[in-house]
């Protein structure tokens, strides 16, 4: 299971509890937690601690539209190695800048 598969699932839902996410995706809870931590570090999701029926979990929300920053996300990026063609942050930035420049937004 790739991080982007999990991200696509979260985006489809908009918001989901972490305790439901790993069950619905059929992945190990620890692996799910690591994937979500990476997605949070990439700025693709927000995790908010919450308690549901006495169980502590996280409410996961997809970040759909980042603030337009004229600098690409590579500035200050914490990744030590990357594949720009596979980078979701860079992809979102390119599309956001493209939409702003075309005046569609
Ligand atoms: S392409 Fe993505 S992962 Fe690589 S430096 Fe830029 S923002 Fe970071």
What report would you give on this structure?
With 105 residues, the protein is α+β, with helices and mostly antiparallel strands. Helices cover 45% and strands 18% of the residues. The chain contains 4 helices and 3 strands, in the order αβααββα. It has helices at residues 3-13, 18-25, 29-41, 88-102; strands spanning 15-17, 45-52, 55-62. A 3-stranded antiparallel β-sheet has the order 1-3-2. A hairpin with a 2-residue loop joins strand 2 and strand 3. The longest helix has 15 residues, at 88-102. The protein is elongated and about 45 Å long. The structure holds iron/sulfur cluster. Iron/sulfur cluster (SF4) binds at residues 73-74, 77, 79, 82, 84, 87, 89-90.
Look at the structure and give the CATH class of the largest domain: Mainly Alpha
* Secondary-structure element order, N to C: HEHHEEH
Instruction: From the 3D structure, determine the CATH topology of the largest domain.
Output: Arc Repressor Mutant, subunit A
Which runs of at least 5 residues are low in confidence (pLDDT < 50)?
Answer: none
Secondary-structure class: alpha+beta
Strand arrangement in the largest pleated sheet: 1-3-2
What summary fits the major beta sheet?
Answer: 3 strands, antiparallel
Span from first to last CA?
A: 33 Å
What global shape is seen? Answer: elongated
Q: Number of helix segments?
A: 4
- Unique bound compounds: iron/sulfur cluster
Using only CA atoms, what is the Rg?
15 Å
CATH architecture of the largest domain: Orthogonal Bundle
Approximately what portion of the residues adopt beta-strand conformation?
15-25%
Helicity level: 40-55%
